[in-house]
Amino acid sequence: MNDKINQDSINKTLWAACDTFRGTISADTYKDFILTMLFLKYISDVWQDHYDSYKAEYGDEPELLEEMMKNERFVLPEEASFYTLYERRHEPGNGERIDQALHAIEEANGTKLKDAGKSVFQDISFNTDKLGEEKQKNTILRHLLEDFAKPELNLKPSCVGTLDVIGNAYEYLIKNFAASGGQKAGEFYTPPEVSDLIAELLDPQPGDSICDPACGSGSLLMKCGRKVVANHASRQYALYGQEAIGSTWSLAKMNMFLHGEDNHKIEWGDTIRNPKLLDKNGDLMLFDIVTANPPFSLDKWGHDEAEHDKFSRFRRGVPPKTKGDYAFILHMIETLKPKTGRMGVVVPHGVLFRGSSEGKIRQQLIEENLLDAVIGLPEKLFYGTGIPAAILIFRKDKEPRHSELDQESRKKVLFIDASREYKAGKNQNLLTQDNIARIVSTYRARGSVDKYAYLASPDEIRENDYNLNIPRYVDTFEEEEEINLMAVRQERLKLKAQLAELEDQMEGYLKELGYE
Q1: CATH number at residue 123
Q2: What's the sign of the alpha-carbon dihedral 461, 464, 469, 470?
Q3: Are both 387 and 500 inside the same structural domain?
Q4: Is the same domain home to 158 and 275?
């Protein structure tokens, strides 16, 4: 089949394949099976497509074809191909065969699907009792193989064209799992519009190293990378990330692979308790851009170990035990390069005004002139929570960047209230391209805009006790229009007269019909 397949058709067929699992296991569990099968099907189709094109060009010469295939981005052992599994789908042992295929792919591709000995498929097993007893499990997996063998899911490059089609399908599934799976599934997903906004604000350049210490499925990282390609026609950048949840780390690795992002390093582990992105001396690596959408107000984030942190990340203060927001912020600031480092982090609004240890940390960061901007976002943008969030922009290059300004002006902080900048959706609100463009242009212009943005001096922030609550700086109050009581009275008298006239008409109709 060489007819071109469109994105919408792929997305709908993939989402329909989820029916195989619905009623058996929850969405936050079966997402791993669907996304892993998509990965397997895609690499099988790419491999087969390239093999067929070489065969058409050079003839049926097995040894020559084998040599040609050694130049591929990845290796696919014959027994690990989706098509081999599909041919044997009616036999017992589907779960075991799929697991063996994934293991064989991993072994054949070395470090591409491994990091520090951890394998991408380590937390994913198709041969699991979660799918029921052996007979039921075998039937479910047979249906899954048949779903992915449909013509609509022919993912060969000759049919789908660009690699982005697969990457987009992957993102589509992750988004839908996040939307339908509630808070648990939403942990690993930043809405693409928010990722796009952050990437625009941070303006990645060729040669930049970009890090997300709570990277989830990697979408925010890749959005920053794609900005370099789109704006500078360059792939000279490196992506780094760390993710605490094993199955989500696997998603990030597969996502990178599917998007062709080979220059990346994604580590598995708890960023606060055990940061893995270290240099050869065992110190924290430093990056040009650090960005994240960390879990909001994480409880049990590592408070007990923080006081003796060997990287001195909490020298400005230890965040509260039950709210880890500033733990991530302080970690991120410590990993910024001293001259080029810039950072964008998504936070709940409590980060802007909560007191105690958080208030002291906030004061330190402002007095060090690290905070560049506070941007308030609309409510209901994020999956799993309806609360509005904010983006904080920190910069290590703030002083030289605003060198043409006087010393006091270089220390100002821009507040933007974009809480009303959205398109309302059924369950989620969306940032439109116009909303994003307005936020970005206001940030770059760095000036006050009536009822939208305000450039606050250090003295003003001090007077507010370092409280960054946006309404303290951006006045969005709209005066109510003065009511003209005489005009209202005249309108009321007019309506009374019309009502009396209608009552008379009704009385006449009732008499005609014989009702007294």
Answers
A1: 1.20.1260.30
A2: negative
A3: no
A4: no
CA distance 199 to 214: 16
Write down the pTM of the prediction.
0.83
Three-state SS at 487 = helix
Segment 348-352 long-range contacts (CB within 8 Å, at least 24 positions apart):
348/296, 348/297, 348/387, 348/389, 348/390, 349/376, 349/387, 349/388, 349/389, 349/390, 349/469, 350/297, 350/323, 350/325, 351/325, 351/326, 351/390, 351/392, 352/390, 352/467, 352/468, 352/469, 352/470
Indicate if 378 and 431 belong to the same structural domain. yes
Specify whether 352 is located in the same domain as 209: yes
Angstrom distance (rounded) from CA 227 to CA 231: 6
Identify whether residues 129 and 252 lie together within a single domain: no
Q: Using one digit for the tens of pLDDT, what is the confidence trace for 352-368?
A: 999 899 999 999 999 99
How many CB atoms are located within 10 Å of the residue 427 CB? 9
Same domain, 496 and 412: no
Cα(311)–Cα(334) distance, integer angstroms? 9
Sign of the dihedral defined by the CA atoms of residues 143, 145, 147, 149, in that order: negative
Between residues 115 and 361, the one the model is more confident about: 361
DSSP 318: P
Question: Are residues 314 and 442 both part of a single domain?
Answer: yes
In this prediction, residues 58-64 reach a mean pLDDT of: 87
Model confidence at 183, in pLDDT bands (50, 70, 90)?
A: very low
Which tens digit of pLDDT belongs to each residue from 68-106? 888 888 889 989 999 999 999 999 999 999 999 999 998
Domain coverage including residue 351:
187-472
CATH of the domain at 377: 3.40.50.150
